[in-house]
Amino acid sequence: MKEVRTFKLDYGAEQIFGGHLLGVRSLTGLTFYDWLTGRIIRRIDNNPKGVYWNESGQLVALCTNDTFYILRYSADAVPDSNLPTINNNNHEDIDGYEKAFQVSEIYLICEYKDCKITFML
Protein backbone atom coordinates (compact mmCIF):
# COMPACT_ATOMS: atom_id res chain seq x y z
CA MET A 1 0.00 0.00 0.00
CA LYS A 2 1.38 3.38 -1.02
CA GLU A 3 1.07 6.36 1.31
CA VAL A 4 -0.46 9.25 -0.58
CA ARG A 5 -0.83 11.99 2.00
CA THR A 6 -0.21 12.52 5.70
CA PHE A 7 -1.03 15.56 7.78
CA LYS A 8 -1.15 16.43 11.44
CA LEU A 9 -4.30 17.76 13.04
CA ASP A 10 -4.14 20.56 15.60
CA TYR A 11 -7.00 18.95 17.53
CA GLY A 12 -8.10 15.53 18.73
CA ALA A 13 -10.09 13.45 16.25
CA GLU A 14 -12.96 11.35 17.57
CA GLN A 15 -13.89 9.70 14.27
CA ILE A 16 -12.98 9.84 10.59
CA PHE A 17 -15.25 9.38 7.59
CA GLY A 18 -14.35 8.43 4.04
CA GLY A 19 -16.09 9.51 0.88
CA HIS A 20 -15.59 12.26 -1.67
CA LEU A 21 -13.85 14.35 1.02
CA LEU A 22 -12.13 13.20 4.20
CA GLY A 23 -14.35 13.99 7.19
CA VAL A 24 -12.86 14.34 10.68
CA ARG A 25 -15.18 14.66 13.68
CA SER A 26 -13.94 16.35 16.85
CA LEU A 27 -15.56 17.75 19.99
CA THR A 28 -16.22 21.04 18.21
CA GLY A 29 -17.69 19.71 14.97
CA LEU A 30 -16.91 18.13 11.62
CA THR A 31 -14.17 19.23 9.24
CA PHE A 32 -13.96 18.19 5.60
CA TYR A 33 -10.53 17.97 3.97
CA ASP A 34 -9.41 17.47 0.39
CA TRP A 35 -7.88 13.99 0.10
CA LEU A 36 -5.01 15.03 -2.19
CA THR A 37 -3.94 18.39 -0.78
CA GLY A 38 -5.05 18.13 2.85
CA ARG A 39 -6.66 21.58 2.58
CA ILE A 40 -9.63 22.42 4.77
CA ILE A 41 -12.71 22.54 2.58
CA ARG A 42 -15.21 23.39 5.32
CA ARG A 43 -15.74 23.21 9.08
CA ILE A 44 -19.30 22.47 10.14
CA ASP A 45 -20.71 22.92 13.65
CA ASN A 46 -22.31 19.49 13.75
CA ASN A 47 -21.21 16.22 15.35
CA PRO A 48 -22.70 13.51 13.15
CA LYS A 49 -22.55 9.82 13.98
CA GLY A 50 -22.48 9.00 10.27
CA VAL A 51 -21.46 10.73 7.03
CA TYR A 52 -22.73 9.25 3.76
CA TRP A 53 -21.90 10.51 0.25
CA ASN A 54 -23.77 9.77 -2.94
CA GLU A 55 -21.75 8.24 -5.78
CA SER A 56 -21.29 11.50 -7.69
CA GLY A 57 -19.91 13.30 -4.61
CA GLN A 58 -22.47 16.11 -4.89
CA LEU A 59 -24.63 15.23 -1.89
CA VAL A 60 -23.65 14.25 1.62
CA ALA A 61 -25.87 13.20 4.52
CA LEU A 62 -24.80 14.15 8.05
CA CYS A 63 -26.65 11.81 10.43
CA THR A 64 -27.03 12.43 14.15
CA ASN A 65 -28.99 10.36 16.66
CA ASP A 66 -32.25 12.21 16.03
CA THR A 67 -32.00 13.92 12.63
CA PHE A 68 -30.05 14.17 9.42
CA TYR A 69 -28.96 16.98 7.14
CA ILE A 70 -28.40 16.81 3.41
CA LEU A 71 -25.73 19.15 2.07
CA ARG A 72 -24.94 19.83 -1.57
CA TYR A 73 -21.20 19.99 -2.22
CA SER A 74 -20.06 22.41 -4.90
CA ALA A 75 -16.51 21.56 -5.94
CA ASP A 76 -16.58 24.60 -8.24
CA ALA A 77 -16.76 26.84 -5.15
CA VAL A 78 -13.32 25.61 -4.04
CA PRO A 79 -10.52 27.13 -6.12
CA ASP A 80 -7.80 24.92 -7.53
CA SER A 81 -4.93 24.78 -5.05
CA ASN A 82 -2.45 25.54 -7.84
CA LEU A 83 -4.14 28.81 -8.78
CA PRO A 84 -3.62 32.08 -6.89
CA THR A 85 -6.67 33.27 -4.96
CA ILE A 86 -5.91 37.00 -5.19
CA ASN A 87 -8.92 38.94 -6.53
CA ASN A 88 -11.04 35.83 -6.11
CA ASN A 89 -14.35 36.40 -4.30
CA ASN A 90 -14.33 32.86 -2.94
CA HIS A 91 -11.31 33.01 -0.64
CA GLU A 92 -10.55 30.54 2.11
CA ASP A 93 -11.10 31.57 5.71
CA ILE A 94 -10.34 29.75 8.95
CA ASP A 95 -13.44 27.56 8.46
CA GLY A 96 -12.68 26.74 4.83
CA TYR A 97 -14.83 27.81 1.89
CA GLU A 98 -18.28 28.98 2.94
CA LYS A 99 -19.83 28.37 -0.48
CA ALA A 100 -18.50 24.80 -0.70
CA PHE A 101 -21.66 23.39 0.94
CA GLN A 102 -25.30 24.41 0.70
CA VAL A 103 -28.05 23.01 2.87
CA SER A 104 -30.74 21.08 1.00
CA GLU A 105 -34.04 21.03 2.84
CA ILE A 106 -35.68 17.69 3.46
CA TYR A 107 -38.88 17.25 5.37
CA LEU A 108 -39.86 13.91 6.87
CA ILE A 109 -43.34 13.71 8.32
CA CYS A 110 -44.58 10.43 9.79
CA GLU A 111 -47.83 9.57 11.50
CA TYR A 112 -48.06 5.99 12.66
CA LYS A 113 -47.98 3.88 9.48
CA ASP A 114 -48.41 6.71 7.00
CA CYS A 115 -45.17 8.45 6.06
CA LYS A 116 -44.81 11.38 3.75
CA ILE A 117 -41.37 12.40 2.54
CA THR A 118 -40.81 15.68 0.75
CA PHE A 119 -37.45 16.45 -0.83
CA MET A 120 -36.44 19.96 -1.75
CA LEU A 121 -33.06 19.75 -3.45
Structural description of this entry:
The protein is mainly beta and 121 residues long. The chain has one domain. Helix content is 0%, strand content 42%. The chain has no helices and nine strands. The strands form two sheets. The protein has a five-stranded antiparallel sheet, with no helix packed on it. The N and C termini lie far apart (39 Å). About 9% of the residues have low confidence. This is Coatomer_WDAD domain-containing protein. GO terms for molecular function: structural molecule activity.
What topology does this entry show?
Layout: E1 15-17, E2 22-26, E3 29-33, E4 40-44, E5 50-53, E6 59-63, E7 68-73, E8 101-111, E9 114-120
Antiparallel strand pairs: 1-2, 2-3, 3-4, 5-6, 6-7, 7-8, 8-9
Helix content: under 10%
Q: How many E strands?
A: 9
What proportion strand?
35-45%
Give helix and strand order, one letter per element, not per position: EEEEEEEEE
Radius of gyration: 16 Å
Cα-to-Cα separation, first versus last residue: 39 Å
| Class based on secondary structure composition and strand pairing | mainly beta
How many structural domains are formed by the residues?
A: 1
How would you describe the shape?
globular
Task: Tally the helices.
Answer: 0
Biggest β-sheet: strands ordered side by side in the sheet: 5-6-7-8-9
Low-confidence stretches: 84-88, 108-113
Mean pLDDT, rounded to whole units? 79
Q: How can the largest sheet be summarized?
A: 5 strands, antiparallel
Describe, in short, the structure shown.
The chain is 0% helix and 42% strand.
